[in-house]
Amino acid sequence: MRDFLESAVIGFNSFVIIYFLALNSLYLLIVLIASRAQRRAQRMSSETALEDLFANPLTPGVSVLVPAYNEEPSIVSSVHSILDLRYPQLEVVIVDDGSTDGTFDVLQHEFELQPSTRVAAGVVETVGTVNSVHISRDGQIVVIRKENARRRGDALNVALEYSRYPLVCMIDADSVLEKDALMHVVRPFVDDPERVAATGGAIRPINGCPTERGMILEKRLPKAWAPRIQVVEYLRSFLLGRVGWSAFNGLMIISGAFGLFRRDLVQQIGGLTADSLAEDADLVNSLHHRLRREKQDYRIVFVPHPVCWTEVPENLKILGRQRRRWSHGLLEVLWRFRQMIANPRYGRMGMLVLPYYVVFELLSPVVEILGLICLPLGVAFGILNWKMAVLYAIVAIGYGILLSVVAIVVDDLSYKTYRRWKDLGILLVAAFLENFGFRQLHAFWRLRGLWSGIRGSNASWGEMPRVGFKETSGASG
Questions:
Q1: Is 62 left (phi over 0), alpha (psi -120 to 50) or beta?
Q2: Three-state SS at 33
Q3: What is the pLDDT of residue 42?
Q4: What are residue 64's DSSP bridge partners?
Q5: Distance between CA atoms of residues 164 and 90, nearest Å
Q6: Measuring CA to CA, which residue among 218, 174, 188 is closest to residue 81?
Q7: How far is CA 259 from the centre of its chain?
Q8: For residue 212, what are the CA distances in angstroms to 140, 209, 327, 468?
């Protein structure tokens, strides 16, 4: 019996080591691909190119779609940040999704909204009943009030129905875009109008940054360690991961906080899946699914330079709820598109990207939690020696820290987002601390989300309490 247990524990821990070696090595490969793409993107983002785009009469108009539920603290700043964007032709379509706070009241007061007779296009099916439509005097802001369907995807579909421009930009109501962000993500559509179907931009946590009327006065790190660690996560995910996947047209996720899509293509697939917990990933995969079945030559592009700043959870309770939802949503998406997995008909999406997400994203919390249980048990019962335990730590933790440090260094060399040496030091400490407690808790949250999805639990978005942006009349040192 002991021989069997020894073989099982040693075999499983060997599997865990190989698993994390493969995971981190694949990520390192993606990082190398991303580094080349970063250099190319920087060459293309010159000021002259943006000026040409701004003056080009063929630059398409953009409807910015903003779903809002109880966003009273930050919605006005967010809308101001959109109106202040440097872009020749845009409108803001806000859907007040049954808010119970003063979201509509602050919008009506700030932008002098008037009742409107604008009607829906009637192309995409929606769920929540629309109660009223309001529009600003200059026609640039449209606010639709509807019953809450507890689904962000339904609110976006309503906004899509009332939009009028050929490109639709989907952002969160608690987001702030940098002044040229829209120009950067539109540029691939202008350069390659026949093939580009969607683009996405980088997301950064705004917590701790002083703002004024929707403009960031100074880029600072959050005060608390939980959002600081999320800054490192976002750098690793957006600056390296998605850039790498985009380089060979294998982008599976464009964040719901900042994505740009051709409106006609979104309408053709019936809009967003209203009951999906990961409606952003679901939308991108729906496009891949349709365009590959139709054998169209297309591109879905991630642009690393434009930055969308958004509020991230400050406390672990809200963060845990968010990560459980993400894990549950990922399972939903992979299950919905299961016929694409390992199917040569869908090219690299079917043969590489989706299998990667199944093995190394969906199942990784299972492997990590079991490894955390088996390793100390093996050492305690004398089945494993300490050398094996150290090897596990180096592979699972040391490699992960290395990737985080690479992401921080690439960001500093490429964009110098945070100008103080102190901030760089804090990020490096956060990259280290992430692996001692936070990462294990994160794996536990994701495992709960996965289990919830397997059981078919009726999960919903839930509420994320907003503290609003740190409005100030000026930045202090």
A1: beta
A2: helix
A3: 63
A4: 92, 169
A5: 10
A6: 174
A7: 9
A8: 21, 10, 35, 12
